[in-house]
User: Fold this.
Amino acid sequence: MQDHIPGHTPAAVTVYPTARFFQALSDPTRLRLLEFILAAERTAAECMAHTGISQPRVSVHLSSLTACGYVRVRRRGRILRYTVGDPRVRELIGLARALAADHMGPPGFDEAPTRSPRSIGNRAPGGQPAHGFRPG
Assistant:
């Protein structure tokens, strides 16, 4: 049985692990890395070359994918090699792509955001938007 978290209903508590599992795929870089690793076992250097991002950032993304079970890591000498941790991941990504294609939003929906998702909806203390605008 799930432990009770004060202030949360038992039904809400059971969705947290699933939400965290999907949250790992919400970052476009992590999704690109996962799809790259789906094709073959990869090293961190190969992942860096594929994404064009620094080693520390690749490491953080790979750690997140590993923590959620999407990716498995094994050491071969000094080299870490990454592979898909569960064969169902391929199916999950395929289903997600098919659903996204079937339910695309308005034109431009599939384009990269012009602002960081973290900056969208930033709030100042008291819940007011950070830019000072107060709704009507």
The longest helix spans residues 88-102. The chain has five helices and three strands. The mean pLDDT is 79.
